[in-house]
Specification:
Layout (H helix, E strand, L loop, with lengths): L5 E4 L5 H12 L3 E6 L5 H11 L3 E5 L5 H15 L4 E4 L14 H29 L2 E6 L3 H4 L5 H21 L4 E8 L5 H4 L3 H9 L9 H12 L8 E4 L8
Parallel strand pairs: 1-2, 1-4, 2-3, 4-5, 5-6, 6-7
Helix pairs in contact: 1-9, 3-4, 4-6
Length: 245
């Protein structure tokens, strides 16, 4: 078991984030979970009793810097620091651009891109002072190749990729890594609401012909967190949707 290593996973009350939190707990990390609404107390208890780690639940809107600062203070009061930040929290607000309102566009960028900036900003000096740590940001295949009806979401995720690469260059002299994950279609509550026809159409775009699982993303995040010589990279976990070369 790792001793005194702490990971903060935003958007970890469900779906991919919840899977990431459990993967880190399984590996022996203490875990900070986050949601805009209270995290399930039973899941918190499950992590602590099953994996013998400590867990803390935080509540806040990452689009608001004041919330991010408050959550940091709560985390530092319990653990004193974090070693890994996983900026996973995000939202979709899909529509064709012709029908998309300015509010639809801004809300997606505020949560996905500005939220990633806010959470990173509040912990950045701490990472730099201890000259170490890992930041993993959640991008998307949509931010790489685009997607109909997702100009706002794709723009936010493409922005995260640019943020990740630039920050990796800034932080490398301090021995801090910064990478991104670009998931494809993952079986979560978000994809569960899709009709059978849409799911089948989506699978036809995937060379492996199936959706991924939250555990697939979680293993990728853990790999990046434990890889001190990997930085500025975008790891595609998408069943082969985006093949570059």
């Amino acid at each position: 078991m790792l001793k005194d290593q702490v990971v903060f996973v935003t958007g970890s009350s469900r779906g991919i984030g919840k899977g990431i939190a459990e993967e880190f707990a399984k590996a022996g990390y203490h875990v900070v979970l986050h949601g805009r609404r209270p995290v399930d107390a039973a899941f918190l208890q499950y992590l602590t009793s099953t994996y013998q780690v400590e867990a803390l639940a935080t509540i806040g809107d990452i689009a608001q810097m004041a919330d991010c600062q408050r959550m940091k203070e709560e985390v530092c009061a319990k653990f004193g620091k974090i070693d890994i930040l996983v900026n996973n929290a995000g939202m979709t607000n899909d529509n064709l651009m012709l029908r998309m309102t300015e509010a639809d566009f801004r809300s997606c960028l505020d949560t996905n891109l500005v939220g990633t900036f806010n959470m990173t900003k509040v912990f950045l000096k701490d990472f730099m002072k201890k000259r170490g740590g890992a930041i993993i940001n959640m991008a998307s295949v949509s931010g790489v190749i685009g997607n109909v009806g997702q100009t706002n979401y794709a723009a936010s995720k493409a922005g995260i990729i640019g943020l990740t690469k630039s920050l990796a260059r800034e932080l490398a002299p301090r021995n801090i890594t910064c990478n991104a994950i670009a998931p494809g279609f993952i079986a979560t509550e978000m994809t569960e609401v899709l009709s059978a026809d849409i799911k089948e159409q989506a699978k036809q775009q995937i060379p492996l012909k199936k959706f991924g699982q939250p555990a697939d993303i979680a293993k990728g995040v853990l790999f990046l967190a434990q890889s001190p010589y990997v930085t500025g990279q975008v790891l595609h976990i998408d069943g082969g949707m985006v093949m570059q070369g």
